[in-house]
Design a protein that fits this description.
Number of strands: 17
CATH topology of the largest domain: Rossmann fold
Structural class: alpha/beta
Distance between the termini: 64 Å
Shape: elongated
Oligomer: single chain
Helix content: 40-55%
Number of helices: 28
CATH class of the largest domain: Alpha Beta
Number of domains: 4
């Protein structure tokens, strides 16, 4: 059979997708290949088809067991002899596969990079007729990539030990620097380079600032995707479980997936999702790399990823079947602070500064009011036209902006006047003229900024604080203390104008006649968490929730967020007895 007949016979296609045929021809011509093609572009076929037209065995290096397993099963279902050697097999099963390899009964062998550095396995390979090697997810080779793996770096031994055997490297994401690193470290000889367009016209991209915990925004988004498969990414293991529980409470079939679960639990969730027995998986980035499920209709990020490579790789899991799919990124300034803290913990290497610049690019993408597809393409050094209507920025009317320069200067001044020693909640209390005991004890009711911020609600002030954080006018230090940057000082001096999208800040004058209760304005997200904890404690003790703490007490806790017993005892409704019975659990949550 020729290549078109083989394409039809084994894969059911009568024509190639863009760029596939050129890569197939290059592999058949025994050239090294480096292909960068978005997820869903059909990279796998580029190496699966030519091996069927060649003598010998193709060895595919892949980073994930689940991905290898799925591909082997799919190939076997297409009557293509494929196998994998991994820790998933027993020694007896491995021996059978070895025997089949020696007998020429296997065309594609999938292995993890760790196996390739095993002397016994290398010796086996030298006894087999290898036609070419495939390096899948090749960005893992580069230390400048977003998923660098040390064992991938050691794949340079392939050219050392199999000098005349071609290598075909594939990835969905690589900046020019990463592309050069891949070619150099794999020792590719004059590789045939192919870079597909990053624009996926079946993907609708949306990004917006997260309101509170983002759950209302999530539910509004999911209303347009009823019964469809999707992945929701969160930053922590704990949040995967809380979001999954929240969705379950709304009657949505959802499961959590993170590295802390047992292998059995993870495998079951993965299998149920792939088989459409579970609609949504709420996961950390531990889930999804190379997932072989074509009908994922949406991907949601509940917080900001650390790089655009991560983000693009993760949204690439939606719409692999070419049908319409949608993505949503929800983010806040706090996400940026958290990601910067993660980077600060890295050892002092050249990569550390590189990580900061990658995060900055991700932040600019989130804040951008330009075409989102264009922004991603530009990051990867690709130039495309604006998408027209495939992202929220291009498809929505021009957003009206509000000048918040005066408010920004008020907030920055209040941070300065309180000696840059407090968190944002406290500074806002000063601005709003709070009678809270701590404000009065510190004498901050005598400051010139005390009470000048009554024109905005506490939630609006928090949004203004977020904007200043995004712009780099303030920084968050230890104990969530806000401090000014050089740029922040310039803002105070009137050197810059600060604007905000109107939908982020619906400016409303506070009613001067009707005094607003202190508890009309509280940290709703923390209050909800405290209510959940209260319900759990009440259930364990067989008592009504209000017996534990009243709503008023929870609101006071959410506002003041005490960090020790002494501060806790100053909260409305908490005495020694109540603290001894229930206080520690609440204190632990607040300290987190």
């Amino acid at each position: 059979m020729n290549k078109i007949e083989t394409l039809k016979h084994y894969f059911g296609h009568s024509t190639f997708r863009p760029l596939q045929e050129e890569v197939v021809d290059a592999i058949l011509a025994k050239r090294d290949v480096l292909m960068i093609l978005p997820t869903g572009g059909g990279k796998s076929l580029c190496y699966q088809l030519p091996t069927l037209l060649m003598e010998g065995i193709t060895v595919v290096v892949s980073p994930l067991l689940a991905l290898m397993h799925d591909q082997v099963v799919a190939l076997q279902n297409n009557a293509i002899s494929a196998a994998m050697l991994s820790s998933m097999q027993t020694s007896q099963e491995s021996e059978i596969i070895e025997m089949q390899l020696r007998q020429g009964k296997i065309k594609l062998l999938y292995v993890a990079p760790e196996r390739l550095v095993n002397p016994y396995f290398l010796n086996l390979l030298h006894q087999l007729p290898i036609n070419f090697f495939v390096i899948d997810e090749a960005h893992c080779v580069s230390e400048w990539g977003h998923e660098f793996r040390e064992n991938y770096r050691r794949l340079s031994l392939l050219k050392e030990q199999f000098a005349t055997t071609p290598i075909a490297a594939f990835t969905a994401t690589a900046t020019p620097a990463v592309e050069r690193d891949i070619a150099h470290n794999l020792g590719l000889y004059e590789p045939f380079r192919v870079r597909g367009s990053l624009f996926r016209d079946n993907l609708m991209l949306n990004a917006t600032h997260r309101i509170k915990d983002g759950r209302e925004q999530l539910m509004a988004f999911l209303k347009t995707h009823k019964g469809e498969s999707g992945i929701i990414y969160t930053l922590s293991r704990k949040s995967t479980e809380t979001v999954a529980s929240f969705l379950q409470s709304k009657g949505i079939e959802a499961k959590a997936y993170h590295a802390g679960l047992s292998t059995e639990e993870k495998n079951k969730t993965y299998a149920d999702f792939v088989a459409d027995r579970v609609q949504i998986v709420v996961a950390t980035i531990a889930f999804g790399m190379g997932i072989d499920k074509s009908n994922i209709r949406f991907v949601v990020h509940m917080s900001m990823p650390k790089t655009l490579e991560n983000f693009y790789q993760e949204i690439g899991r939606a719409g692999r079947d070419g049908l319409e799919a949608e993505t949503l990124l929800l983010f806040s300034a706090q996400d940026i602070v958290q990601q910067k803290m993660f980077i600060e913990d890295l050892p002092e290497t050249p990569y550390k500064q590189y990580a900061f610049s990658k995060l900055d690019a991700m932040v600019r993408f989130g804040e951008s009011e330009s075409c989102r597809h264009q922004s991603i393409a530009a990051y990867f050094d690709d130039r495309i036209e604006a998408c027209g209507d495939k992202c929220d920025n291009c498809g929505a009317p021009e957003s009206e902006k509000v000048d918040i320069t005066t408010a920004a200067r008020m907030l920055l001044s209040a941070i300065l006047r309180t000696e840059q020693s407090f968190g944002l909640h406290y500074v806002i209390d000063v601005l709003k003229g709070s009678k809270e005991q701590r404000v009065l004890q510190n004498g901050h009711d005598s400051l010139s900024v005390y009470g000048i911020g009554e024109a905005y609600t506490k939630a609006q002030w928090m949004t203004i604080g977020d904007k200043l954080l995004e712009l780099g006018a303030v920084e968050i230090g230890a104990f969530k203390v806000y401090t000014l940057t050089h740029f922040g000082v310039e803002v105070i001096k009137g050197a810059h104008t600060i604007e905000l999208k109107k939908e982020r800040l619906s400016v409303q004058k506070a009613q001067s006649k009707a005094k607003v209760s202190y508890f009309d304005d509280y940290d709703v997200q923390m209050y909800d968490k405290l209510k959940t904890l209260r319900a759990s404690i009440a259930s364990q003790n067989g008592i009504p929730p209000y017996i534990v703490f009243s709503d008023k007490t929870l609101k006071d806790l959410s506002n003041k967020q005490p960090q020790n017993k002494e501060e806790m005892l100053e909260i409305h409704g908490i005495g020694e007895v109540k603290f001894e019975r229930y206080g520690e659990a609440f204190l632990e949550m607040l300290c987190e």
